[in-house]
Design a protein that fits this description.
It is a single chain. The protein is of the alpha+beta class and 232 residues long. Helices cover 46% and strands 10% of the residues. It contains ten helices and five strands; from the N terminus they run ββαβααααβαβαααα. It is globular, with a radius of gyration of 17 Å. The model is unreliable at 54-84 and 206-210 (pLDDT under 50).
Length: 232
């Protein structure tokens, strides 16, 4: 049974709900990617490789725009323990949905725009190669926005149950942390490991994997890149 969380982000139209699910040990990535590439409307999702997601950000260091998103998440969930690992995702969703509402999307739809919003540059094809589903993907984030009245929590859940072969797990900090490859994520954004006195780059990368402060610094950098993308 698919575990779907539904969010209503501040400053988006109330009807534009965001439905998110997390899968582990995905078995049919090849099939799902084929449907996406074929333009099958039933599979119009943002399908994101969960291994390139950052976790653990300190809310006190966020920009005001991100705090707005986080605050709306808090109101829905009623628990701060499960929100921090979703901030990177929700920032990209907010960017894509806001551009969608204002007629500014550059890709096919709001779901492809969500994947594009994760990328630090304006190369759409590269954003899908780095952040989208691949034939080898085993950990998958699935995002669906309610772009029509027929798309709701129940309809998304039912389709995920029927079409996605994998273990549906709760979207929470602990589960995303178990999937995150911080070094791969940093390389995707072309960010150098933070310098630490008395250590070289290789030592810093090794230390980064198990150090929450490294992840916090990385996440803040990612949020800035998403917010400022395309600014002139």
């Amino acid at each position: 049974m698919a575990l779907v969380k539904t969010f209503h982000l501040a400053h988006l139209h109330p009807s534009l709900a965001v439905h998110v699910a997390l899968f582990r040990d995905l078995k049919n990535a090849v099939y799902l990617r084929q449907q996406l590439l074929a333009g099958n409307k039933d599979f119009e999702y943002a399908l994101i490789d969960a291994n390139v997601f950052g976790t653990a950000i300190m809310a006190t260091r966020m920009s005001p725009d991100v705090v707005v998103i986080l605050h709306s998440h808090l109101l829905i969930e009623g628990c701060s323990g499960q929100i921090l690992s979703t901030t990177h995702l929700l920032a990209a969703v907010f960017r894509a949905a806001n551009d969608y509402q204002n007629g500014r999307i550059r890709s096919r739809n709001v779901h492809s725009e969500t994947v594009f919003a994760l990328s630090p540059n304006n190369n759409i094809a590269e954003s899908f190669r780095k952040f989208g589903i691949a034939d080898t993907t085993t950990n998958l984030l699935v995002v669906k926005l309610s772009t029509s009245p027929s798309i709701n929590h129940e309809s998304v859940k039912n389709h995920l149950d029927a079409a996605f072969e994998g273990e549906s797990v709760e979207l929470c900090d602990q589960n995303l942390a178990s999937m995150t490859d911080l070094i791969r994520l940093r390389k995707a954004y072309k960010l150098s490991p933070p310098a630490r006195s008395g250590g070289n780059n290789k030592q810093s990368e090794s230390q980064e994997v198990g150090d929450e402060s490294f992840a916090s610094e990385l996440e803040i950098a990612l949020l800035g890149l998403i917010a400022l993308k395309g600014a002139t």
